[in-house]
Design brief:
Layout (H helix, E strand, L loop, with lengths): L3 H30 L6 H7 L4 H7 L3 H18 L2 H4 L7 H18 L1 H13 L5 H27 L9 H21 L6 H16 L4
Helix pairs in contact: 1-4, 1-7, 2-3, 4-8, 6-7, 6-8, 6-10, 7-9, 8-9, 9-10
């Protein structure tokens, strides 16, 4: 017979597993239907849960969105551990191409993740400032990493000096979010990798000091 402490641990593990299942289902549903168009009741139905049980885990839709964003941020940032540690000693161009490759691979296998963020970027600014601010804070971290690589490349004379690192970083982020949405629309005509190549090559060549 399980002891009280063991029972609490089992319940906590079950609650954590249920929470993760809710977050994954919500990310996919929001990516398909949009943030504003998807209700908590629809989400509860999609994951075969009563609305009351869903609200027990996430009292509001805003709470659910913030938690989903945090979870995706955790997954995404894990892809860049190497760049942020040992990779800081690499040449700037290698750091940048690795960033592109990791982003491409992540979104190739998890397109709903990128679409979810793109939906938030499109809908939140005019509808929920708290969500918009949380999204800006997350994207700012990625932009700072990219801008740091740009500045390092300029300092080492790998990259041209006549562009703004911060603006370039935000252009890269927005381009990749838009690309994953656009490719879904034309999935029968053009591949995701082909679109990434079409985007990445001009960016890399455009800032290369040797060009």
């Amino acid at each position: 017979m399980a002891k009280p402490g063991e029972k609490r641990e089992i319940k906590q593990e079950r609650a954590a597993r249920t929470r993760m299942e809710i977050l994954q289902a919500s990310i996919e549903l929001f990516a398909r239907r949009g943030i504003l168009a998807t209700t908590m009741n629809e989400l509860a139905k999609a994951i075969k849960m009563t609305p009351g049980a869903l609200y027990w885990h996430f009292p509001t839709k805003e709470d659910l969105l913030l938690a989903a964003m945090e979870e995706l941020h955790r997954r995404f940032i894990g892809e860049f551990t190497e760049i942020l540690t040992a990779g800081r000693k690499w040449p700037a161009k290698k750091q940048l191409t690795t960033f592109f490759e990791r982003t491409r691979n992540f979104l190739r296998y998890h397109p709903a993740h990128g679409i979810f963020f793109a939906m938030l970027a499109a809908e939140a600014p005019n509808n929920n400032e708290r969500i918009a601010e949380a999204l800006r804070e997350m994207l700012q971290l990625y932009a700072e990493v990219l801008a740091g690589i740009m500045r390092y490349g300029q300092k080492k004379q790998e990259f041209r000096d006549d562009f703004q690192p911060v603006a370039f970083a935000h252009a890269i982020l927005s381009a990749h979010m838009g690309l994953i949405v656009h490719q879904q629309l034309y999935r029968n005509e053009v591949t995701y990798d082909a679109m990434c190549d079409a985007l990445d090559f001009p960016m890399l060549d455009g800032i290369d000091r040797g060009r």
